[in-house]
Amino acid sequence: MISILLFTVAFSWMDIEFHEDQELRKYFTTSSQLTEELSSANELYYSGDIQGAKQKYLLISLRTYDANWDFYQRKILSYSLLKLCQIDRDKCEDYISELVNLDPDQVKQIDPEVFEPPLLQQVLLQQNRMLSNFYLWQPTDVFDNVKYIIVNGRIYSNANGLTISLPLTKQRILLVYSNNQSELFTGEVSQFLKWTPKGIKTIVQKDINTSVPLTATSTNDTKAPSKWWQENKKTVLIWTIAGGILSYLVHKNNKSSSDGGSTVSTSTSKE
Hints:
The chain is built from eight helices and six strands. By secondary structure, it is of the alpha+beta class. β5 (170-177) and β6 (182-188) form a beta hairpin. α2 packs antiparallel against α3 and α3 (50-61) packs across α4 (71-87). It is elongated and about 100 Å long. The N and C termini lie far apart (148 Å). 18% of the residues are buried.
C-alpha cells in the first residue's frame, strides 16, 4: 500500500517536472535500479534483518550524486536516509543533513504514516536551521545562454530574478544551454561559485575579443603622441635649433640692411 502511494505521488510530480520541456527527460536516468534496491532493503527491514537493511539503505544513500534523479528517485534516496535515522539514532542528524542538502522540498513530502511524528519534527527543525546557511545564488548575465539549471535533479528555468538556495556542500549542477548541449559540475558549492563553464567561457571570450579592438584603439590614441615624440625627438630638436639659427640670421641680416639704408639717406640729405 505504501509503495503504491509513493508511486502515485511520485509520478504526478514527475509530470510537473517535465511537462514544460520533454527534451529534459534525456538528462535523467531511466534506470529502475534504485527502486529495486529500495524494495530489497525494505524486505530485509520488515523481516527483522535490521543490519542487512541498514547496509542496503547506506548503499542507496551513497548514490546521491551519481545521476540527475527525478522527484520519485529523490524520494527513494530521502526515504532511505530517514530509515537510516530510525536505525541509527546517533547519526540521525547527519542523515537529515544529507536529505536537506539533496532536496529541501522532500521534507514536505515525508509520509507521517511511515515515519513517526517526533522524527518528522526533528527533520523540520533541522531543516529550518540549515536553510538559514544556504547560499542564495543568482545567475549573472553571462548565464544568459543557459536555459535550465538542474541541481541534484531539481529543474530550474533560467529566468530573470531566478534565485537558487544552495547548501555549501557537494552538489550536482547541470547547465542545459539553449542549443540543448549541457555541462556538468559536481563538487563543493564554494568551487562552483569560482567555476567558469566552457560554454560560458566561449561567450565571455567572444565578448572580450569584440571589445579588445575598441579598447586597444582608445589606448593607442592616448599613447600615440608620447610614442611619436620618443621616436622623433632628436629630429625635432635638430630642426628646431636649425630653424632658430636660420631665423636669427635672417633677422640680423634684415637689421643690417635697415641700418645701411639710413646712412645713405642721411648722406644724400647733406649733399
